[in-house]
Amino acid sequence: MAKYNRNQYPDHSHTSGSSQPGGGFSIVRLIIFVVAVGILGLIAYRYYGGTPEGYTDVPEEVLVKYVPSDFKTDVDLENALPILSNPYRYSREFDQLIHDFNLSLVAHVANRMNLTDSLKIKMREEYEKHHPYIRRMMFNDFIALQDTTSTIYRTWYQNDLTNAVDILNEVASKYTCFFINQIISTLLPTQEGKIYVKGQDVNTPCGVALTEGLQPMIARLKERASVEDFNRAKGILQERVERTIAELGTMEIRDRKGIGTSKQTKVLGFDVSSTEMEMSAISILKVGFKLDKYFDISVSSNSGVVTITMPEPEILSHEVYPKLDKLDVGWMREINQGDFNKNMDLLRREFRREALESDVMDKAKIRATELMETMMMPVIKGLNSRYQLKVRFKNLSPPLPDEPEAEPFTDIKNSSTGR
User: Fold this and answer.
1) What is the layout of strands, in order, in the sheet containing 409-415?
2) pTM score
């Protein structure tokens, strides 16, 4: 019987990987099967007993396995918004809010890293060591970013509380990684300053705190803030407020700025609609002193000094008059009402930032001193020709809880002639 030769009939041979009757797997199928089993085995080894990719011989004490954990917080969201809207008034409550806020992030990181109960307690204790200076830095940064002189303006544009939540997010994001890393590096053993993690949803401890803790809290606060902002903006239409004021305006800044916005809609990489908007605004910002907050005149016959004490200068009013210079709306209408409000708020904040970064506050003090001399020196000389006038400015900002109060007075100059 003639022998069958596969190579003699290449056009009629079976495709690679087929099996002959009575035969087993072909070589190709066997190789694929072995490779697949090897990959599955490697994955199982890495997940259940292996070391993180790229590392070998990692000591067990620096190897952390993440476990699933739901984020929980003791932060009182109901009271958080009023605190954020007026941190000076609620300075102690602000401190407690930051304390609870940060401890929630620390606790979630500890739960995700599956640390022992004793380590969780130590992490909390370690944070308490850092809290005094962390709360001070967060408070100062929050105040620096918050526009406390335009509450009515921001309420009208429906972003008062929302803006406060955005500032909290910016400040918290700045310091969260710092204190989380400080606590982890202090309590957990490391290898060359590193810990190694494995498990599902692997991230750095800092990343866990930001993405799984901070962002959900900010989202919940922002949702509540949006509702409150709308209700307050709606209510302002029905209110008429009359109040007495005692203000001494000494400086006025007038400025003009513009902003442009362009939005395109693309389909398959091609522009099908485009909208352009250009807006300009004139700003009138007045700086001076709210004398109803504090104003005092004292006479010292021993030293021959009449001292007038006033509060530190601040922005008394800020009026912004917008004008729409150009508006080309595409057929898909990419611009909405929120874009107008956002651009207006950007212009207003830029006006205010430039004013605060200038020397307008120092000029306001100098001008106030000159005015006090002009008004008071004739009266003072009538009392006694040897009397001098001294103008002081008192910082009325409350200190943080448990923080010693700094020297609240600043002086401009002494005068015995009025100049």
Assistant:
1) 296-300, 305-311, 388-394, 409-415
2) 0.56
pLDDT class of 133 with cuts at 50, 70, 90: very high
Angle subtended at Cα 201 by Cα 198 and Cα 203, rounded to the nearest 5 degrees: 70
Mark 318-339 as b/e (b = at least 16 C-beta within 10 Å): bebebeeeeeeebeeebbeeee
pLDDT grade for 240, boundaries at 50, 70 and 90: low
In tens, the pLDDT along 23-40 reads 445 787 878 877 888 787
Burial of 162 (0-12, 13-18, 19+ CB in 10 A): buried
Q: How far does the chain reach from its first CA to its final CA, in angstroms?
A: 131
Q: Compute CA 136 distance to the chain's CA centroid, rounded to the nearest angstrom.
A: 15
Confidence of residue 278 (pLDDT cuts 50, 70, 90): confident
The total of other beta-carbon atoms located within 10 Å of residue 292's CB is: 12
- 45 in helix, strand or coil? helix
Whether residue 97 contacts residue 121, with contact meaning beta carbons closer than 8 Å, is answered with no
Name residue 310's beta-bridge partners: 393
Residue among 207, 187, 216 at smallest CA distance from 101: 216
The predicted pLDDT at position 310 comes to: 92
Write out pLDDT tens, residues 155-183. 555 567 888 888 899 999 999 999 988 88
Q: Give every CB contact of residue 103 below 8 A, 6+ residues apart in sequence.
A: 74, 124, 127
SS3 254: strand
Q: pLDDT at position 158, please? A: 58
Domain ranges of the chain: 28-56, 60-238, 249-415
The answer for residues whose C-beta is within 8 angstroms of residue 141's C-beta and 6 or more apart is 171, 174
How far apart are alpha carbons 129 and 125 in whole angstroms?
A: 7
Helix (H), strand (E) at residue 243: none
Name the one residue in this structure whose structure tokens are 């900002």: 397
* Residue 280 pLDDT: 84
339: which 2 tokens? 């874009």
